[in-house]
Fold each of these.
Amino acid sequence: MTSASLGDWLCAMPKAELHLHIDGSLEPGRMLQLAAKNAISLPYASTAEVEAAYRFEDLQSFLDLYYLGASVLRDEDDFYWLMMDYLQRCRAQNIVHTEIMVEPQTYAAQGVGLDVIMAGFKRAMAEARDGWGQSVLLILSMLRHLPEADALATLAAADAYRDSFVAIGLASSEQGFPPEGFQRLYAVAAERGYALTAHAGEEGPAANVRTALEKLGVARIDHGVRSVEDPALIEDLRQRQIPLTVCPLSNVRLRVFPGMAQHNLLELLDAGLLVTVNSDDPAYFGGYLNENFLALAEHLHLTRAQAETLLFNSFSASFLPAAEKQAFREQLVLAIDHWSA
Ligand code: ADE
Ligand code: ZN
């Protein structure tokens, strides 16, 4: 298969996305429209100015603009459109299942509560489910630059929406905010029956991945690309088949790797780890899920066999019940057979 036809094939295949911050899907046009509607002043006059600002030095320089962007979201309709815009992208990119991180602490800074957020999100999710069968799970993602007590209060507030969230996660600045500071949060969430994931080994060291596994008890690692710095950790991740939700375009934009040609995703995959491909914050990093796959095809000589493994992994590594994972993998088998026929 040529790189171009592999790209066509990848775009056409059913797939899951497991690492997507909903605020990271806020496109510049929508951001400016909501800012005008809600009379919020931003330092940008046009989408070109927004895009010009998206040249990041590191994770923190991105997060500063990411939280600024999210500050335009105020009422139920704003959250409806944020979710609907992304779910329409899922439909266009054959993302048949998606697991979306929601970060209530971001909106609390503007005095916006979970009732407003969830009313908008749930309306969009119901329309997408009824309209084209979109499968969605939500992850309650906590911000690690805020105190653990704040995350515990957010977890308590989410009790009213317990059925809406499958898992908790931990995002934001990794440097200076290691996983060991959130052990109580993860213990309480585990007691409440949430699945557990956390960002680790993105900008921070492999030791954060180890700590997230051992002290937080996570079942999945978001990013985890710096695990390669610890061969014993790589062996554990392989043996336990701990999923890594890797985000290639994000890692290049945030300078975790100097360029896509240097990304280690295929090295991790070929070492037998349960690697998946994801977009993280597509509106900020130059592409949604298909563009992440296309970048691997273009710069890393992704093979058809590796591509198939990544697509199957996307379902296997999800937080869906076993029977639903299996049904999606069977849908993928049929799509592969149909394409070849
Ligand atoms: N929040 C949104 N994107 C993130 C990333 N790549 N790392 C940590 N926190 C985030
Ligand atoms: Zn992320």
Amino acid sequence: MPSEFELIARYFTRPAHGARLGVGDDAALLVPSAGMELAVSTDMLLVGRHFLPGDDPQQLGHKALAVNLSDLAAMGAQPRWALLALALPEPDEDWLAAFSRGFFALAGQHGVELVGGDTTRGPLNLCVTVLGEVEAGRALTRAGARPGDEIWVSGSLGAAALGLAQVQGGLALTPAEAASCLQRLHAPEPRVALGRALQGVASAAIDVSDGLLADLGHILERSGVAAEVDIQRLPAHPAVAARTADPLVRRCLLAGGDDYELCFTAPPDRAQAVEAAGRTAGVAVTRIGRVKAGEGLVLVGADGAAMPIVERGYDHFA
Ligand code: ADP
Ligand code: MG
């Protein structure tokens, strides 16, 4: 049976050109670029909670890093380094090889280097920490939305939750719809380029990991503002858009987690700059509502009247 150190050497040690010292010592040594602040975030994926024991390890490697890069994207930061803390029930080398392949493929796409971590035996648990750089004082936060700003969202919403609903049963998607939704669920694409391009354009941003209403709610709370969102404008994934009469599907659109799109605000006179940022990043951006003075979120329906909000985002302790 391979030792802990052999596993680290085999599956998690790669040259780290952008670090003074990477994997192999007691700590990594990193030198941030001049004029930049470090953006640091950590996210854990736990078996039975965020994924199932039989899930594809290559996709898990991708997703464990992707959900973290999504947080850096929401800050407008450029990802640079990652740490990986891994608990494994047993040293399954096929699993590790596939996991490592998925992780490093996405890391390579974003110029991220794995510079350290921890490996221990235990119930399968994947915890990634990412470090990115952002021009000092220019990070996007949740706190900058102002009354009059427009609210935008990238890409499309609801597919990941619809994919999960399909896995859990009780939903009939076509094979093509199921494939597309499961891809969104298992292999989300963090909107890093969009986050970078929105710097100096967006007034506030968050990534949609717990559902649009919940995550937009965090911007409103931190910014001390209210909002009106037009349900007809929401960019529903086609499989979602085809079924919005179903309350379960409506839940996926408004409160489904795991989409990893960006929700952000910008003053109306920056609308063209937002569109340009979307083009630069190669992702659609859709205006879905407006920031108001006050507090709370109003959802406006097809008839222009306020709709009751029954959908809530995911909360591990609710
Ligand atoms: P220590 O006991 O000093 O914490 P470890 O023996 O846990 O060090 O780890 C040895 C080296 O391997 C360290 O540089 C650590 O950062 C790195 N490392 C351990 N596990 C991982 C992993 N899963 N991915 C990347 N690097 C790892
Ligand atoms: Mg250790």
